[in-house]
Design goal:
13% strand, alpha/beta, 2 domains, TIM Barrel, three-stranded parallel beta sheet
Length: 403
Amino acid sequence: MAYALFLWALVLAALAAVYRRHLATCWREPVLRVPVLIFESDDWGAGPAEQAPALRRLAEILASVRDAAGRPAMMTLGVVLAIIDRDAWRTSGRYAARNLAASEHAEILAAMREGIAAGVLTPQLHGMEHYWPAALMRSAASDDRVRRWLADGEAATEALPDGLQSRWVDASQLPSQALAPAEIQQAVAEETHLFKVLFAVSPRVAVPNTFVWGDDVERAWAEQGVCYVITPGTRYEARGADGTLVPSGRMLVNGDSGLDGLRYLVRDVYFEPARDHQSGQLVQGLVERTRLGRPCLVETHRFNYLGSDAEHSFAALREALELAIREVPGVRLMSATALGDAIVARDPIMIEVGLLPRFVVWVNRVLTLSRFRKLAWASGLALLLHTGRAAAGLLSKPEAASL
């Protein structure tokens, strides 16, 4: 019997050793005390004029929905600051940009500023362009799709080949090539300066295009005052030979530290009504992340709210907000910046510090790790974790303090 227990202990120790990094990551991630819902929408900015009425409609919907504390719904905008000047390109054959300060974009910028002033829109840096200009021009020399995109005065950046939409690598040929650090530093300095000119504040949150970025980009962001980077829970560093994203392999969680003081936030719930994503699915994501002590950052792109699908998407957004408030009592509607600040400050209203409640959430988290969960059940570790979680849950209840 003693020998069997000894062998079992060895198995459990080996399992814990193999997964020690994942287990430690789940523990160090802050535990939220309240449900948090943040809508994040990318690609707004220089581009189609129809964005202006769409942004005003979004602001109207957001302002009409409030959480239990009376806070209006918010949406962060991943702002793209410029796009190619097609007329200049046709004339000279060279790249020139038209940024968000240009006269043709005046109504778009005005709509953004109105929403910001109303407290329902928050700008985040998504880049000067949604591509690397030199890579776009090199691709145009050999790719008919890019030439057609350049010739079409109405084509948005979403119509570009996926690889080219990754700004922080050169994907004109695959596999992609790294950009020179000096080029990255200059580009980040230019776009953060323009962002401040347009919105009267420096960008504190950056959203890397297609979630591809590297150390040189992080250093440049931090140098320009960016505090938080939106991630999908990992970092992609290149485009492979087939154009697919190449992950770093590192698991990122909310509050993790990057270079030079940057912090990561995780956006991993998707709500694209134009692709038939349902409100109920979003609320399920919110419920699950609340169980895991995590915020629910929702990704929803501009394409949903433009064109023929716009009315459906506006209705779906309103429905999702109202359903979330109804089904998840106490949910907080806020911005990514506010969440990041709460995590850094360890705001006691938002962040759990008690060991027992954190242990309960830690068990929930580690049992979402697919391979670990299977091995934990096979080895019997899962039963121990469930038992410990139940005991910690009972002891951490307020009434336990009086026993």
